[in-house]
Amino acid sequence: MTHKADKPPGISVIAVDRNYVPMMEVARRKAIRAVASGRAQVLNPANLDRSEDPCGAIYLIIFPHAQACSESKLLMGRLDRRVMRRDHYTCQYEGCHNRADTIDHIIPLCQGGRSTWQNLVACCLLCNQHKGGRTPEQAGMRLKKVPEGPRAHLFRRFEEILKDGSAA
């Protein structure tokens, strides 16, 4: 009997738009379906000749009719939940190990900050109250890491694949 835990981990595939901008990471099975249905094309077809696992070589697929949405479109709706998920529901200020329950503007709105991925972090109520309408520097606080947009990790993986020569 096969248990779910006994199955090998799924191989992820980076899906890029018609301009080769990474859009999302998809499971291998979904990528195969998209290619089989003609909605996507494999970017490295030479790697598919492996006899031991023909599907394991797919790393990049292109959706020729798709275009990645802009950051402003990604900001619409559910932003708080997405920021919390990106930051693993933990306060992003150094020295704090509390669970995040608020979203903090690194550069406060009252100082000209905006509600963008790079200016929002998950934060606990105590740190948010301590920081108030100040920047972290003004409040004597430091971030654990620099916040990044929702697809930044895809761009890094895309660059790694291109450097390795996996894409044709």
UniProtKB/TrEMBL annotation:
InterPro entries per UniProt: HNH_5, HNH_nuc, NA-targeting_endonuclease
Domain annotation HNH nuclease: ranges: 78-129
Matches recorded under CDD domains: HNHc
Matches recorded under PANTHER family: OS07G0170200 PROTEIN, SLL1193 PROTEIN
Name of protein: HNH nuclease domain-containing protein
Top-level taxon of the source organism: Bacteria
